[in-house]
Each structure stands twice: as structure tokens, then as C-alpha cells.
Amino acid sequence: MIGPAARQLSHTSTTTSATVRYLPSGDNTVLRDALYEAWGRRCHVCLRPKAFQEIQIDHLIAHTTAAADLQRLKQQHGLPDDFDLHAPANLAPACGDCNGQKGIHVLGPGLLDIRLRKAATRESEVSAAVQSFATTHAVGRSLRVLRTLDLSDPAARAAFEQHAPAVVQELALLDESKADYLVTRSLDLIRSVNVDLSYADLAVDLILDARGRTSAAIIEEIGGCPLATALGPAVDGLAVQVRSHARAGLEAPDVEVVCFIAPVVDGVALSVAHLNCIDLRLTIETVNVERDGATLCANFGGRFRCGFRGSVVRSTLSGHSEEWNGEVGTAGQLRINCGWDLTAGLGSPQTLTIEITGWDHFKALVWAARPKLLSTHKNWNG
Ligand SMILES: [Zn+2]
Predict the structure, then answer these.
(1) Which of 157, 192, 199, 360 is most buried as measured by Cβ atoms within 10 A of its Cβ?
(2) Cβ atoms of residues 145 and 8 within 8 Å
(3) Which UniProt keywords apply (predicted)?
(4) How far apart are CA 368 and CA 370, in angstroms?
(5) Ligand 1 mean position, distance from CA 164 (Å)
(6) Ligand 1 center–CA 60 separation, angstroms
């Protein structure tokens, strides 16, 4: 069972300066697992929590990139000449869906830049995890192999089902808090408010530990409110808040905005004509409920990622309006508070607040691929 992983080890240990690389025709299970852990057990494209079996290794810059394009990308992203496309600094975990259609999901050069930086900061962690595999105690190696098992194989699944409960039991006997597990639920939102945001792609996931599962059950049973109903208006509210942040960012370009056109000409600045939310991902990581007399309060904590695309317009003093492309990719953390008055009957929460508690990144781009001359202002009355 340790066969394939051991093969990878013998391969990496021959280069004693400990170079960890993707092996194009080899077994990369240990590397895949190290990337999976280092990137928070998520797909780096859709950011959704994924099971290990769903994860593939994605080359941020495709290893098939033509030499001229590669040279340009290295310059654009400040990469060294000897940048190794098979090294962890160019690798990230992606789910099968996203890896197959990455082009549809990426927001543009801004997002690639963010991912390359992230990969660079995680390279040493990933390398260390792969290398430590060789020196881990046999128990650690066996458990790692167990975790990366292909459970679609009926024999593997039968063996796993037979022996895994005993392992969990041993763990709980050591300390009962150690046997907790996380459950991921995806919500199908029934969105109650139309706020003129066209989501091309909307996903809401909950990652629930024991406390989260209990809290979710209380909201649904005592509050009488499905989580999708509680969180639907919150998602709309989040999109509105992030959009106004994105709009302000584009209209007042600063260091966070890459402008391929001059942001201000003749004293006239850019203004956003429209900005559509093209994707919104929300992951709720904590759920807590409190009951105070007839009031039930729920607090959701988590993180979001939003992408917007739209057009940016500038009216020049010569009387023309020019339209440019603009896009924003941003992510952050938030808290959502919902309140139910239990005497008022069950259903949607009566109070809702959404608080963005921090921004992980904000990247905006304005570019001039095909500037469109919109109109010439004429004074029709004159
Ligand atoms: Zn994905």
C-alpha cells in the first residue's frame, strides 16, 4: 500500500538537495497531499472545500506554455529565469471541475499573480511535508496512505469501513475532543431579494464541526428556518457591500489598482458605469446560537470571495466618453448575525446584519484592450 508513495520518495531522495517537484510520469500522491494541506484543503480556483479524492495538482503556469509566452509571464510576474514549472511555487490544488475549465474561472492576470505569490509563500511548507514523509514513523506513513485511499475501490472501502471506526474509537479515548469531525454542506440558495446582481456563479458552503452542527439544527428546528432561507438575503447584502467597495476602488485608483490607462486625464477621473458580480463564494466556518427569552440569535462566521466585471467610463474635456474594461477580485472575512423573535412565528429571520471584518486581498484592473468611443456630447437644446 505504501508502494506508490515510496516510489516517489526514492525519486526525490536521489536529489539530495531535497528538490521537491511534480513528476510528469510518476506518482505524485504525497505531493498532492502536501499541497492539499498547505492550501487549506480547498480548490485554489473555486475555493470550495474538497475531499482529497477530488483534488488534482494544477500548474498555475501551464507546463506546456510556449517559450516566448513563458518568458513574458516570468517578466510580468517577477519570476526568476530558472523558475521551475514543476516546483511547488507553481503548483496548487484544484478540483477536477476547475482544473478542466480553468480559463472560465480565472479573473485575469491579477488572480494569477495572487496565486503565484501564495504558492511561493507555501513552497517551503509543501517541500518540508513531502520530505518529512521519508522520516515519519511508520504509523504516520500508514495513516497518510489511509487518508489518501481511493474509496471507490470496493475492496479498499470494505477494509476501511471495517477498521476505521476502531481508530476513531482509540482517538476518542485519548481525548474526546480529538474525535470531532467536520461536515461540509452546500446550500442551494433561494434568493429572496433582487438586487440587480447577476451571479454567473454562486456557491455557499458550510463547514460544520460538532458545535456548528448542533447550532444549525437549532436554527432549523427551533427557528423553523432552513439555512438557505437564513443566508439568502445575507448573500445579497454581502454582494452589495463588496460592490460598493469595488466601485470605490476603481474610481479612486491607488496602489491596489493596476491601471493600464491613465486614471485621470484633464482632471477627469474614471467612473464605473456598471459592475456585475460574476462570482461569489461564501464559506461559513462557524455557527453559534444563543437563546435569550423569546429571541434566538445566530452568528455565522466565515470567508468570501467575489469577482466583478464591468465597464469604466471617462468623459474627456473634449466632450467624448470612452469606455474601458474593469474587473475586481477580492476576498475577506465576514460575520452574519440573524435574529428570530420566536413569538412572531417561525421562518425568515427578523433581523439581519452583515459585517465585513477583514479583507484578505483586493485586486482591481482597468485595461484598454478595446476602448470604445461611446458618444459625443451635444447640446441638443442649443
Ligand atoms: Zn474548484
Answers:
(1) 199
(2) no
(3) Endonuclease, Hydrolase, Nuclease
(4) 5
(5) 28
(6) 13
pLDDT at 286 over 90: yes
Cα(228) to centroid of ligand 1, in Å?
Answer: 21
Task: Give the closest residue to 277 by CA, choosing from 233, 318, 322, 246.
Answer: 246
Q: How far is the CA of 122 from the centre of ligand 1 (A)?
A: 19
Q: Name which of 82, 93, 105 is nearest 54 in CA terms.
A: 93
CA torsion sign for 210, 213, 214, 216 is positive
Contact 198, 218 (CB under 8 A): no
Give, as residue ranges, everything with CB less than 5 Å from ion ligand 1. Answer: 43, 45-46, 95, 98
Looking from the CA of 7 toward its CB, the CA atoms found within 13 Å total: 9
The CA distance from 307 to 242, in Å, is 9
Ligand 1 centroid to Cα of residue 117, in Å, is 19
Q: What is the pLDDT of residues 22-61, one digit of tens each?
A: 999 888 999 999 999 999 888 888 778 888 888 999 999 9
Q: How far is the CA of 36 from the centre of ligand 1 (A)?
A: 12
Instruction: Give me ligand 1 centre to Cα 56, in Å.
Output: 10
Domain boundaries in the chain? 3-148, 184-376
At 151-176, the pLDDT tens digits run 889 999 999 999 988 988 988 899 87
Centre of ligand 1 to C-alpha 102, Å, is 9
Q: Kindly state the average pLDDT of the residues 58-83.
A: 90
Beta strands at 201-208 and 271-292: parallel, antiparallel or unpaired: parallel
All cell numbers assigned to 136: 515519519
Helix axes 3-13, 109-135, angle to 10 degrees: 100
